[in-house]
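It is worth pausing here to work through a concrete case rather than discussing structure prediction in the abstract. The textbook approach is simple: state the sequence, then state the predicted structure, then interpret. We follow exactly that order.
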Amino acid sequence: MEILYEDASVLLAVKPVGVLSQGDGPDAMPALLCRQLGLAAVYPAHRLDQAVGGAMLFAKTPQAAAGLSARTAAGGVQKEYLAVLTGEPEAREGTMEDLLFHDSARNKTYVVRRRRAGVRAASLSYEVLAGADGLWLVRVRLGTGRTHQIRAQFASRGLPLLGDGKYGGRDNRCPPALWSYRILVPREKGAPLPVTAPPPAVFPWNLFPDLRESPAATPGC
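Step two, the predicted structure:
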């Protein structure tokens, strides 16, 4: 595992695509990190879909886990993602606000019009960074952290992510093109630290060669 940042309370690591972000299995991120770093336990501060890779924040103690949960609930842990869309958004930047319902039986999230049991408000902002070969790279900042939020909100506007067949993507040349790109890591002392994990130089990220050199993609540590 690539470790991006570590102190006495938290660590930030890169979750590979295909690895479970949480759970007790020997091949899930907590067990992998514990074996690599010689820790008794680590506690995920959030989750990533198995098919999604990138920066992921963990607490190293139960006390730190409780603090991260409180910060996350209050919006104090900022997260940004990169996504590759199969269509061009009408505006170069904007905000999406929706009501979402997650069907746990189907493991799928739907944009709905009315509040009812299980429906939760969701918001995100986005900026279009580049286009190539009919695909569009966007940077996304979450206002809320709902299951499959980015995938569902873009798909509901006719902009499914590349490789995301569950949400209407017809091009299956890759897994869903979503990458956890930047997290503002809270620290016990000092200001929060922005830490960036550029995506790997494989399709479709390699269609955007300026990604690693742009100010938006400059690593934070």
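Step three, interpretation. The two ends are 16 Å apart (CA to CA). The first helix runs from residue 29 to 37.
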